[in-house]
Please model this.
Amino acid sequence: MFDIVGKRLWFFSIAGIVVIACVISLLTLGLKAGVEFSSGSVMTVGFEQEVEKEDLEEELAGLGYSNVIIQNVGEDEFLVRLPRLSSAEKTELETDLTSVFETLTVREFDDVSEMVAAETTRNAGIAVAVAAVGILLYIAWAFRRMPHPFHYGVCAIIALIHDTVVALGVFSIFGGIFGWEIDLKFVIGILAVIGYSVNNTVVVFDRIRENLTRDTRVGFRTVVNNSLIETINRSLNTSLTTLFVVLALILFVGTVIQNFAVVLLIGVIAGTYSSLFIAPSLLVVWRGGERTRTAR
Amino acid sequence: MVRRNSLVFTIVLVIFVLALLVVLPIDEGILGKKGVQLGLDLQGGIHIVYQADLSAIEPDQRADALDGAKAVLENRVNPLGVTEPLIQIQGEDRIIIELPGVDITDKEKERLARVDLLEFGELVSENETAKWENELGKWKPAVAEIDDEEKVLTSRYFKTNTYVGQDNLGRIELHFEWNEEGSEISEQVTSRLSVGKQPMGIFDGDEALRGESGRPVAPAVQSTIVDQGVITGLSLTDSTRLSSQLNFGRLPVPLEIIYDQTISPILGSDFVGMSVKAGLIGILVVMLFMVLYYRISGLLASLALVFYGVLVFAVFKLWPGFTLTLAGIGGFILSIGMAVDANVLIFERMKEELREGRTLGAAIEAGFSRAWTAIRDGNITTLIVCLILFWLGSSIVASAPVQGFALTLAIGVVASMFTAIVVTRTLLRLFVGSALARRIRLFSPHLGRK
Model:
């Protein structure tokens, strides 16, 4: 039988290194706010003939739109992030681009004012905060019958923070490389990761709770490790099925849903890791000196 | 026990058939017009939020002014031929318009919320600043002085009886009449311009109104015009559209676009195709995995997953006001992955029970009852997140994707609990007592390994 709890230092170290790397990436690269949060216009344009990103960049700079972010989102298809465009400016831009690159279709155009962006940012922030509080209350409730409810709650929260930081950090690396910006789909993804993370930890802890009442002869450490081994198939299988569908989203739907799907992909992997290798072992560390299970 | 299970199985079958009847017919495509209502991001279209500037209106008349603005917008939208436009007031000073499946030009979009649809202009003399510029020259607004006040000649002074007609040669004409104030301004302006038959330009926003030939409409003023006039040279479509928009008067308050999302209908239909593909492939891979890993149990879970898919779609169709968005599809596809979670929990539990030497029947019952707390507790977190997302969605302008995701995921989570606990269990129970039940490895292939 694997002794996961016994190798906890290894697992903690791996998690520690990843989290530190993610925090560094978050601090240096940061997350770039998309139009939904920072206002501006985004245009997805498609060309019938071959167009290089550099040519488009040069042409836009020539028209006075320097420092625009251009992302290649498909064959001869680009997402162009601009300052807010008025209707006249947009028409002019389209006419100019058509005269240079011939046939052009504007597949999507989004324009967000500062007022709406500020509102969205504020409300998304409130939602994330409320979600965090809601999950905390739920954890307190779910573990109320545990011998040390506080320990379980805190360990679940540490796992949750680990998953969220990893999801944010890895996304910021992608943001640095591909110019991805965060939007509402990203926020949805983060909240889904939070729900998923707690879900996984709850299942493992639920088993620990059950085993503690069942077998009183073995030590806490062994109970935790046994519970882990008993639930590891479930954790891996559920994560796999979720990863299958998330990968299907990334592969077949692509750019439009990439923020959501990529955050989930990272979050599911991080969540599986933390629910198996971090949260349960932390419980054991906390109960450190205790050789035997304390009475309930 | 066996008899009760047959009853439950029959009920499950009936629900399945009913759900299937709701989801079918598929002739228009599962996501077609007769199917689930699609959001703007999936069928293309326009979503604009206007902020009304009510500062010039008395506080007690603001609600009326906003209602008036909404009515004008409705009437300007109607000639565009949108099948299901949605125009509604949001809060105290905002109007939302959603035009699904529509693909209009920037010009038409801008015209929707313009206070003055048409403005009249004259050529500038030297050293004067121009408002418009085109191949015919530089133009300034045509102004008259009435009671010591400068007034610009615009379509706001048209009576609401504009109509499209034809002259003797069959050319399209747009007829209009000035109201009292307009007549005065027009009289002054045209009497000035008729000297030397100067042209009078007609402007549509920032640009000249252009006729069928593509040239700006700028007739030379022959004589003083007092009560009525005719605009010639426009195409039939343009004149018809303009005339109906002009007849609905001017907006009582200026509207500013604060949010605009325009998606081409072609792109929208691409998304539907892509997400159907992603969903189907996702389901198939999950099923394959379940069958390979859990054999007969996995096969039954896959059948339950088919049931799940049909049931969820039936709920989407029956849920009042339900609109499927791209994020909603994301939520649905994510819920497929999560839907099998309950099954996995139960099967793993069953395996342990079997290992302890129980019969299949006993293992099924113990597996389900022991796994229940974990299933319940695990799904509650997801439902909490859904609830919060739904609430977030109600407080922001771009509400459709956020609420769509929350609703589909929540429906998915509840449906998945039902299918795992009722459908899979009923299917498994059918095997209890059969010859197959003795070959326990078919239900739980990894029994020997530990």
User: Anything to note?
Assistant: Chain B has ten helices and 14 strands. Chain B has three domains: 2-39+264-442, 41-112, 119-258. Chain B has a mean pLDDT of 84. Chain B touches chain A through 75 residues (CB under 8 Å).
